[in-house]
Write a structure and sequence with these properties.
Oligomer: single chain
Distance between the termini: 22 Å
CATH topology: Ferritin
CATH class: Mainly Alpha
Shape: elongated
Order of helices and strands: HHHHH
Largest sheet: none
Number of helices: 5
Structural class: mainly alpha
CATH architecture: Up-down Bundle
Radius of gyration: 14 Å
Number of domains: 1
Number of strands: 0
Helix content: over 70%
Strand content: under 5%
Length: about 140
Protein backbone atom coordinates (compact mmCIF):
# COMPACT_ATOMS: atom_id res chain seq x y z
CA UNK A 1 0.00 0.00 0.00
CA UNK A 2 2.84 2.32 -0.87
CA UNK A 3 0.42 4.69 -2.60
CA UNK A 4 -1.38 5.43 0.67
CA UNK A 5 1.94 6.42 2.25
CA UNK A 6 2.72 8.64 -0.76
CA UNK A 7 -0.68 10.35 -0.48
CA UNK A 8 -0.26 10.88 3.28
CA UNK A 9 3.26 12.25 2.78
CA UNK A 10 2.06 14.61 0.06
CA UNK A 11 -0.85 15.79 2.17
CA UNK A 12 1.53 16.64 5.02
CA UNK A 13 3.83 18.43 2.58
CA UNK A 14 0.96 20.54 1.21
CA UNK A 15 -0.26 21.34 4.74
CA UNK A 16 3.18 22.57 5.83
CA UNK A 17 4.33 24.29 2.64
CA UNK A 18 5.69 27.73 3.39
CA UNK A 19 5.07 30.84 1.36
CA UNK A 20 3.58 31.20 -2.08
CA UNK A 21 6.43 29.48 -3.95
CA UNK A 22 6.42 26.53 -1.55
CA UNK A 23 2.64 26.18 -1.80
CA UNK A 24 2.75 26.31 -5.60
CA UNK A 25 5.54 23.73 -5.75
CA UNK A 26 3.84 21.34 -3.32
CA UNK A 27 0.57 21.87 -5.16
CA UNK A 28 2.11 21.05 -8.53
CA UNK A 29 3.56 17.84 -7.12
CA UNK A 30 0.25 16.97 -5.42
CA UNK A 31 -1.72 17.47 -8.63
CA UNK A 32 0.78 15.23 -10.43
CA UNK A 33 0.39 12.52 -7.77
CA UNK A 34 -3.39 12.85 -8.05
CA UNK A 35 -3.23 12.56 -11.84
CA UNK A 36 -0.97 9.52 -11.86
CA UNK A 37 -2.86 7.70 -9.13
CA UNK A 38 -6.26 8.34 -10.73
CA UNK A 39 -4.96 7.12 -14.09
CA UNK A 40 -3.76 3.89 -12.47
CA UNK A 41 -7.11 3.37 -10.75
CA UNK A 42 -9.55 4.24 -13.51
CA UNK A 43 -9.53 0.88 -15.32
CA UNK A 44 -9.76 -1.18 -12.14
CA UNK A 45 -13.39 -0.49 -11.26
CA UNK A 46 -16.48 -0.03 -13.39
CA UNK A 47 -18.18 1.83 -10.52
CA UNK A 48 -15.33 4.29 -10.02
CA UNK A 49 -14.11 4.58 -13.62
CA UNK A 50 -15.81 7.91 -14.35
CA UNK A 51 -14.83 9.47 -11.02
CA UNK A 52 -11.17 8.52 -11.44
CA UNK A 53 -11.12 9.56 -15.12
CA UNK A 54 -12.63 12.98 -14.50
CA UNK A 55 -10.48 13.50 -11.40
CA UNK A 56 -7.38 12.66 -13.44
CA UNK A 57 -8.35 15.28 -16.03
CA UNK A 58 -8.99 17.87 -13.30
CA UNK A 59 -5.62 17.08 -11.71
CA UNK A 60 -3.87 17.56 -15.07
CA UNK A 61 -5.68 20.87 -15.47
CA UNK A 62 -4.70 21.96 -11.96
CA UNK A 63 -1.07 21.06 -12.62
CA UNK A 64 -1.12 22.94 -15.93
CA UNK A 65 -2.67 26.00 -14.29
CA UNK A 66 0.11 26.07 -11.69
CA UNK A 67 2.77 25.62 -14.38
CA UNK A 68 1.89 29.13 -15.60
CA UNK A 69 2.17 30.76 -12.18
CA UNK A 70 5.11 33.20 -12.21
CA UNK A 71 6.11 32.31 -8.63
CA UNK A 72 6.31 28.54 -9.24
CA UNK A 73 9.94 27.47 -8.88
CA UNK A 74 11.43 25.82 -11.99
CA UNK A 75 10.36 22.19 -12.36
CA UNK A 76 12.73 19.37 -13.31
CA UNK A 77 12.09 17.84 -16.72
CA UNK A 78 12.08 14.30 -15.32
CA UNK A 79 8.63 12.76 -15.21
CA UNK A 80 7.07 11.57 -12.01
CA UNK A 81 6.57 7.92 -11.39
CA UNK A 82 4.13 6.17 -9.19
CA UNK A 83 4.59 2.48 -8.59
CA UNK A 84 1.62 0.22 -9.39
CA UNK A 85 -0.49 -0.72 -6.40
CA UNK A 86 -2.60 -3.59 -7.63
CA UNK A 87 -3.59 -4.79 -4.15
CA UNK A 88 -4.72 -1.44 -2.72
CA UNK A 89 -8.41 -0.81 -1.98
CA UNK A 90 -9.85 1.65 -4.52
CA UNK A 91 -12.38 3.20 -2.17
CA UNK A 92 -9.65 3.81 0.39
CA UNK A 93 -7.49 5.39 -2.31
CA UNK A 94 -10.39 7.56 -3.50
CA UNK A 95 -10.99 8.75 0.07
CA UNK A 96 -7.32 9.58 0.58
CA UNK A 97 -7.15 11.45 -2.75
CA UNK A 98 -10.33 13.36 -1.90
CA UNK A 99 -8.72 14.40 1.39
CA UNK A 100 -5.58 15.54 -0.40
CA UNK A 101 -7.68 17.56 -2.85
CA UNK A 102 -9.56 19.20 0.04
CA UNK A 103 -6.27 20.24 1.65
CA UNK A 104 -5.05 21.60 -1.70
CA UNK A 105 -8.19 23.67 -2.11
CA UNK A 106 -7.92 25.10 1.39
CA UNK A 107 -4.24 26.02 0.92
CA UNK A 108 -4.62 27.82 -2.41
CA UNK A 109 -7.28 30.29 -1.28
CA UNK A 110 -5.08 32.07 1.30
CA UNK A 111 -1.96 31.70 -0.86
CA UNK A 112 -3.69 33.43 -3.76
CA UNK A 113 -4.97 36.21 -1.52
CA UNK A 114 -1.42 36.96 -0.41
CA UNK A 115 0.06 36.94 -3.92
CA UNK A 116 1.12 40.27 -5.40
CA UNK A 117 1.08 39.14 -9.02
CA UNK A 118 -2.34 38.88 -10.68
CA UNK A 119 -1.22 35.75 -12.56
CA UNK A 120 -0.28 34.05 -9.27
CA UNK A 121 -3.65 35.05 -7.80
CA UNK A 122 -5.47 33.60 -10.80
CA UNK A 123 -3.41 30.40 -10.71
CA UNK A 124 -4.21 29.87 -7.03
CA UNK A 125 -7.91 30.59 -7.54
CA UNK A 126 -8.18 28.28 -10.56
CA UNK A 127 -6.09 25.52 -8.96
CA UNK A 128 -8.35 25.66 -5.88
CA UNK A 129 -11.35 25.23 -8.20
CA UNK A 130 -9.81 22.10 -9.78
CA UNK A 131 -8.95 20.71 -6.35
CA UNK A 132 -12.57 21.22 -5.23
CA UNK A 133 -13.72 19.43 -8.38
CA UNK A 134 -11.46 16.46 -7.58
CA UNK A 135 -12.78 16.35 -4.03
CA UNK A 136 -16.38 16.36 -5.27
CA UNK A 137 -15.64 13.55 -7.72
CA UNK A 138 -13.83 11.26 -5.30
CA UNK A 139 -15.44 11.91 -1.90
CA UNK A 140 -18.06 9.38 -0.91
CA UNK A 141 -21.42 10.93 -0.24
CA UNK A 142 -21.74 11.77 3.40
CA UNK A 143 -17.98 11.94 4.01
Amino acid sequence: MKVMKEIDTMRARVETAGGLAGTLEAGWDAFELLRLTCEQCEDRSDELFAAFSFASAAAAEGRNILADAPSLPPRPDAGSSCEPFVQADLEEIADALAGLALVLSSRFSPAGGGARDAADQAACRDAAREARRIHELLARRGS
